[in-house]
Amino acid sequence: MGTNATNEMAGANKPGFSERKAFDETKAGVKGLVDAGVKKIPTFFHHQHDKFEQASNSGDHVVPVIDLANIDKDPSLRQEVVNQLREASETWGFFQIVNHGIPLSVLEEIKDGVQRFYEQDTEVTKEFYTRERYKSFIYNSNFDIYSSPALNWRDTFLCYLAPDPPKPEDLPQVCRDILLEYGKHIMNLGTLLFELFSEALGLNPNHLKDMGCLEGLYALCHYYPACPEPELTLGTTKHSDNDFLTVLLQDHIGGLQVRYQDKWIDVTPVPGALVVNVGDFLQLITNDRFKSVEHQVLANHAGPRISVACFFSTAFRLPSKLYGPIKELLSKDNPAKYRETTIAEYVAYYVKKGLDGTSALSHYRI
User: Fold this and answer.
1) pLDDT in tens, 274-290
2) DSSP 130-148
3) Which of 135, 169, 254, 310 is most deeply packed, by most CB within 10 A?
């Protein structure tokens, strides 16, 4: 039985199932609703607002920005960056990086390529719409459409980039070349970041790489259309990421927020910067040293908002490899806080649970 059929059966008794199924079967996503001129958003997009909903940006808290310029040439600069990265990962779980080596022209072209895909004729994009999880290119709206309490105001395509790049003919022509090029740049950047994270843990620079953290990479390319009633819904529900590390490119519109000291803090777009955040599996293997924190994206009257999130995860590359807290980080005073698991098992649990506002990590605590 396909993934889609399984998910449908699981959600068949939920309120609003038939409306969700009808929306899914249009294969036009949220953009299709906007193109049809909706003024009132369907009720299955309505979210219960919680006490954290309003951002509390007094200017006291700003997500750290780390400058990677010349760290390959100056050991003292590199050590300073390692220290900044350690502090950001232990407290925020989020930081932005500048002078990361990816040309601005490449960043602009990947955003343009993503937008070009979504703004093709609907009959073209429909050909790519699927809920099968193992294709090299997957376009749909809301991966958890039949399990989540409320849908998110966004459409998404997923593309596996490493270790086995997709065949060019499997990718949409309008963004084919830039997706493959961007994947190479992100792999190079990921190699550096995992070295810096290893050093920040007091380990050999290759430690995380040797564990397989770089073995898999995929991109989630989101399209958040302008929303007629943004106060009723969200672009992305609060969640943490189910990977080792995420590298995100967001456009100028903003809306990304991170939970810090029980407040929502805006991750303000910085021109040319990339957002880096710790994933659940990095928190697990560092035994809570580095924090995978909740974040969300607000819906907005402005749009479309484009973002490209690249996830380092071995779920589909090394599905049976067991991961637990790194032995070198454990001691009598710091025993393991998590049981071992495979990323495939973790991701399956995460997907089944859906974006319901709770952390999947708690399921694996000892």
Assistant:
1) 999 999 999 999 999 99
2) ---SSSSEEEES-TTTTTS
3) 310
Q: Is the pTM of this model over 0.90?
A: yes
Please give the distance of CA 13 from its chain centroid, rounded to a whole number: 29
Rounded to whole angstroms, the Cα distance separating 62 from 267 reads 8
Q: Is residue 136 part of a domain?
A: yes
- Burial environment of residue 296 by CB neighbours within 10 A (0 to 12, 13 to 18, 19 or more): buried
Q: Which of 175, 239, 174, 246 is nearest to 217 (CA)?
A: 246
| Strand pairing report for 137-140 and 256-260 | unpaired
11 lies in some domain: no
Reported as a single tens digit per residue, the pLDDT across 198-218 is 999 999 999 999 999 999 999
Q: Is residue 204 part of a domain?
A: yes
The enclosing domain of 261 has a CATH number of: 2.60.120.330
Q: Which residue's entry shows tokens 């068949």?
A: 12
The answer to whether the CB of 222 falls within 8 A of the CB of 152 is no
> Within 13 Å, how many C-alpha atoms sit on residue 328's CB side?
9
Secondary structure of residue 240 in the 3-state scheme = coil
Contact 341, 281 (CB under 8 A): no
Instruction: Please give the single-letter amino acid code of residue 273.
Output: A
Question: What is the C-alpha to C-alpha distance for residues 119 and 130, in angstroms, rounded to an integer?
Answer: 18
Q: How many folded domains does the chain comprise?
A: 1
* Domain coverage including residue 201: 16-47+63-364
